[in-house]
Amino acid sequence: MLQEAVVTEPSGRPGTRARAETEASPSTPRFRIFIVDTGWDSPGHKVLQENFGLIRELQREDPIYVLGREKSIEYLRHHEERIGHDPIIAVHDLAAMDDTGTADFHGFRLRLGLLRTHQQALLALQNFARFLRLHRQSTDLEGEIRRGLRREGLAGAIEIVLGHEAREIGG
Amino acid sequence: MPERWSDYLTIFMSALAVGYMVYEIDRRQRKLREIFDVLDAEDAAVTARLEDMVASGELQPYTGATLA
Fold first, then answer.
1. Which of A16, A62, B46, B53 keeps 20 to 30 A from A97, CA to CA?
2. What is the domain extent for residue A122?
3. Does some domain include residue A37?
4. B67 within a domain of the structure (yes/no)
5. Could you give the number of structural domains in chain B?
6. Mutation test of the interface with chain A: which of B13, B23, B25, B28, choosing the one with the most A Cβ atoms within 10 A?
7. Quick one: pLDDT at residue A121?
8. Is residue A123 predicted with pLDDT exceeding 80?
9. Residue A100 has pLDDT above 80, yes or no
10. Which DSSP symbol is given to B20?
11. CB A3 within 8 A of CB A35
12. Within 13 A of B25's CA, how many CA atoms are on the CB side?
């Protein structure tokens, strides 16, 4: 069966290190990670619950803020177009925010709630965690993400044309 | 100019194939961006609100090993 390919590893293949690195210590917080989760009975919610401890350990240099159910509901009441997209993991890039505040690029986000199966959500979360580790010292995070998004779109289309069904995690 | 109808058909089919590729790339990039994308000026208000919550102490770093 040919499936729709959506790959949430927007930049950098596994094992690819960010080319440019900052002078900051590897243990200095680079990101603030926010989790918005109203608790839908969804694959994304379950995967996040099951793997949160691992994510915490992998990202122990960066603080994680969990909004909790009440605050998450309040958040989505003000952003109703995002209802059903949660769990949402928003990552604020402190380096970018130091330079431009929030007026320009200042981070990235993953909408786990849009993934339909447990396997898709798990793969997305794993790719996301890998991305955070690989790029936490990057000096051109925005460029790497945007290049990765272009490349993944092209790769997915080529796979369809070639009749491959690998790399599927979205529906 | 093509001289045979089969030449026209080949050109038409080639154009269809290219169009499909362009459409598919665009669709997949849009789908991917729904799931994963950058935060930029469009998200400024949300980001600022979250940062305010941190600055005011309303949000504290989560120290639990599991999500409640």
1. A16
2. 31-162
3. yes
4. no
5. 1
6. B28
7. 92
8. yes
9. no
10. H
11. no
12. 12
Nearest chain A residue to B21, by CA: A157
pLDDT digits (tens, 9 = 90+) for B22-67: 888 888 888 888 888 888 888 888 888 888 999 999 999 988 777 7
Residue A2 lies in a domain: no
A45 against A145, higher pLDDT: A45
Confirm or reject contact between B44 and chain A (CB < 8 A).
Answer: yes
The CA distance from A160 to A5, in Å, is 8
Helices (H), A19-66: 43-58
Overall number of domains in chain A: 1
Is B23 a domain residue?
yes
Q: Distance from B43 to chain A by nearest Cα, in Å?
A: 8
ipTM: 0.77
CA–CA separation, A164 vs A162, rounded Å? 6
Q: How far apart are CA B44 and CA B6, in angstroms?
A: 55
